[in-house]
Design brief:
Blueprint: H1 2-12, H2 65-77, H3 79-100, E1 106-118, E2 131-148, H4 153-220, H5 225-260, H6 266-273, H7 300-321, E3 326-337, E4 349-358, H8 366-433, H9 438-472, H10 489-493
Antiparallel strand pairs: 1-2, 2-3, 3-4
Helix pairs in contact: 2-4, 3-4, 4-5, 4-7, 4-9, 5-9, 7-8, 8-9
Length: 494
């Protein structure tokens, strides 16, 4: 009987009222923006290398050993990733809960009921006769209030839970990309502060020597009190900047430890301190020109947004099914007797089945409101999906604009630093020879210092932009597989 009941339930529950899903048209241009800002020369572009097909594909882009070590630590210890992993586990369990409702729940039980009565208990005269006992014993198994999913309500809810589970899984992948990019950017910021500290220390030492020189010129009568005041101001300015960059460097390390999720190992901290400048960081592979605009379609956050949209579409099917009759079945099979010693003897078998059908007649508009709500949430998820695509397109376009301009900006900034350095040396030489006042030397020195810091900032922005582009493209650009496709519900159950 129970095999027949299960087969009939599965047969009747094979359909759903979920609307046909159609992916919304991407509300972005079919090609990346064009123009002078995007005209980077890609002749030196290098491929990322053969894909490993595993979780270490990021190593093909992040090639610096120290950076790789930091990223590996973060992937193991980062708390945001752990939160995302637990969210995926909770979503997987929720799918299992919803999916379990598709199948009857089989319960076993035993019953013993003993009741003492008197022969005249129910007589009209009220006289009670002798006492006697009613006994009932039963052992068996059965199904309680199993809903036959005739209209696909439970199946729609199960499918929605599955799509949300896959959406959370893709959000975890997106978080993983974000953690990798954040760790890389934090390390670059730390190394840039190392470089800025070194430059500031050199400038501070130069200004100390210059201050002593100006004081001597005032003593011999060739300098003025104004020259001394200007030299002292420049000295204190450098001392202030030294404290600023020292603080920023410490904060960058703190940020790195937060992202890594643990104190930095001694060997990693030593290696990080040993990088005097951004030039010591292994360069990222160059990005080729002509990237197809549909590459952003493999971004985990876009796929996750589509998963949430699919789940909202599934919810409409569940809301529609609520308008139709519900069929519930309660059944039991076992043995029963009024004598416990004969409970398992031949001929004591007993069974019962109680089907029930419920048809909604009046609910004050509750079911209609639920359907309206489900449709509104689908429209909301459509807008969220489209916004996610637009945001992704903008992030890639901005990073491509950076790729097209940071190379030239950095070359110009390096040239500015070199020329201002020569200008400062010439001004200092003329000041020492007595040809020019100290003000010319001070202006040249400040210009040189500012140009050096500008060169560091530009170099940092260029490398950070590469990290952003790698993340914005969903983890690479050449021959890399898209995130694995979502398994079917059947595959997930098995």
């Amino acid at each position: 009987m129970f095999r027949s009941l299960l087969a009939a339930a599965l047969f009747l529950g094979g359909c759903t009222m979920i609307p046909t899903y159609r992916r919304p048209v991407a509300p972005v241009s079919a090609a990346w923006p064009q123009g002078q800002a995007y005209g980077a020369d890609s002749a030196d572009a290098t491929p990322l290398g053969a894909a490993s097909g595993g979780l270490d594909d990021w190593k093909r882009f992040y090639r610096d050993p120290v950076m790789q070590r930091l990223i590996a630590l973060a992937l193991e210890n980062n708390r945001d990733l752990r939160i995302a992993q637990h969210q995926v586990a909770a979503s997987s369990a929720q799918f299992d809960i919803e999916n379990a409702a598709l199948f009857p729940t089989l319960n076993g039980g035993a019953l013993a009921d003993v009741e003492k009565l008197y022969a005249g208990t129910y007589s009209l005269s009220g006289n009670r006769g002798g006492a006697f006992f009613l006994r009932e014993y039963a052992v068996g198994f059965g199904v309680s209030a199993y809903e036959v999913d005739l209209w696909g309500r439970i199946r729609s809810a199960s499918r929605a839970a599955f799509d949300r589970y896959m959406s959370d899984e893709l959000n975890r992948e997106s978080m993983r990309l974000s953690v990798i990019a954040s760790v890389s950017a934090a390390m670059l910021d730390c190394v840039a502060n190392n470089e800025a500290l070194a430059v500031t220390r050199r400038i501070l030492e130069n200004r100390r020597r210059t201050y002593d020189l100006v004081r001597r010129t005032r003593t011999v009568g060739t300098g003025t009190e104004l020259d001394v005041a200007e030299a002292e101001t420049a000295l204190h300015d450098a001392e202030t900047n030294l404290e600023i960059y020292t603080r920023q460097r410490a904060q960058a390390v703190n940020q790195l430890e937060l992202l890594v999720g643990a104190p930095l190992p001694a060997e990693v901290r030593t290696a990080l301190d040993g990088k005097a400048g951004l030039a010591d960081v292994v360069a990222f592979p160059a990005v080729p020109a002509g990237l197809p605009s549909d590459m952003i379609g493999r971004r985990p956050d876009i796929l996750a947004a589509e998963g949430a949209l699919r789940a909202a579409n599934d919810d409409i099917g569940a809301a529609r099914a609520e308008f139709f009759p519900k069929i519930q079945i309660t059944a039991a099979n076992g043995t029963a007797s009024n004598n416990i010693t004969r409970l398992f003897q031949s001929g004591m078998g007993a069974w019962n089945i109680a089907p029930q059908i419920t048809l909604p007649l009046f609910d004050a508009g509750r079911l209609a409101a639920q359907l309206k709500q489900a449709k509104a949430r689908k429209r909301q998820e459509i807008a969220q999906y489209e916004k996610t695509i637009q945001t992704a397109f903008r992030e890639v376009a901005d990073a491509l604009a950076g790729r097209g301009t940071y190379v030239g900006q950095r070359q110009a900034q390096d040239a500015l630093a070199a020329s201002s350095g020569r200008e400062y040396l010439l001004a200092l030489t003329r000041f020492k020879a007595g040809y020019d006042p100290y003000l010319s030397t001070l202006i040249a020195q400040r210009t040189f210092y500012s140009a050096q810091l500008g060169a560091i900032t530009t170099h940092l922005q260029q490398m950070t932009n590469m990290v952003t582009l790698y993340k914005a493209l969903g983890g690479g650009w050449d021959a890399m597989p898209a995130p694995r496709p979502a398994p079917s519900i059947g595959e997930r159950i098995l």
